[in-house]
Structure formats: C-alpha cells, structure tokens
Write a structure and sequence with these properties.
Number of strands: 0
Order of helices and strands: HHHHHH
Radius of gyration: 14 Å
Shape: globular
Helix content: 55-70%
Strand content: under 5%
Largest sheet: none
Number of helices: 6
Length: 105
C-alpha cells in the first residue's frame, strides 16, 4: 500500500517542485528506516528498495540503499530476491565496487 500511495502522490504533483519535495520527503523517510535496523523485515526492505528504484527511473540519483538491495539477494523469499536482482541489474554497472558482492550472494 505504501508504494501505491507514493506513486499516486508523485503522479498527482502539479509541478516539478512539488514532485521534488515529495521525493525528498520519501528519501528522508527511507534513509531513516534503513538506519533503524531493528524494525526492518524483508517485506519493508523490499518496499523501500522498490521506491528507490522508482525514484531512480524518474531520473533522480540514488546515493544509498545499494547494500539493502544486496541483502535482499540472500533472502529465502522469491519476491524479495527478485527485487534485489532487479535493483542490482538496473542501478549497478558491471564495474561497480558492489558488483563483487553480488557474485558472492
């Protein structure tokens, strides 16, 4: 539900400034959630990684969240593993420093 609401909010923005404000608010929320490790389950990690990927596909740079996506690769649930691989395939180039960790996962 959170991802659907976020996408609807972005699509409903009337100006680029409003969109940027909503994206910055969501990035701050995701950053704080990733910083609080005790309450992060696989479902929420997958949801936040998916939001980061959506923000990237809108044309914005993503400076964090890469390790969270790589952590999804070791999940036993297919949907979480799938989102991790999709994120890695979309955002990491072949010479990225984290590419070595993908091969080990």
């Amino acid at each position: 539900r959170g991802l659907t609401v976020f996408i609807a909010d972005i699509r409903g923005c009337k100006s680029p400034e409003a969109e940027m404000k909503r994206i910055n608010k969501e990035l701050a929320n995701i950053r704080s959630k990733f910083g609080d490790k005790k309450g992060m389950d696989g479902y929420n990690r997958k949801k936040y990684v998916c939001k980061l990927m959506f923000i990237f596909l809108l044309g914005h740079d993503i400076e964090f969240g890469h390790m969270e996506a790589i952590n999804l690769l070791s999940s036993v649930k297919y949907s979480e593993k799938q989102m991790g691989y999709l994120f890695v395939a979309t955002l990491l180039h072949e010479n990225h420093e984290l590419s070595k960790l993908v091969g080990q996962a």
